[in-house]
Amino acid sequence: MNKRLQQFLAAENISQSKFAETLGVARAGVSHVLSGRNKPGFEFIDSLARNYPDLSLEWLISGRGRMYKDNRTAESAQIFDSQEPNLFSDELQQTDNQATETKDRKIVKLVIFYSDGTYQEIS
Question: 103 Cβ partners below 8 Å, 6+ apart?
């Protein structure tokens, strides 16, 4: 579960201290959960569910399904789907309009998630 929680924080671009503040728990408590030293208690998970209602607790706890309950971030949800995404599907291909709209955007951070639950951030 700690690996999936790390993936969630990376996907949401949330620091550990901001996350602890939002949940109303000590930073050390978040650090211990993320490192795998401690398991999160009911209050931690309850606060997580209240503060991040789009996060799928089933995915967080068991790894089944998608990270998010809805499709508000289709690309993120597909990355964390329990099945590999089809990179050649029509849903993932950019249209000419989208390419024009994103021409001025630059990538500032890339997060790679591996099948063993680890991840790497490239800035």
Answer: none
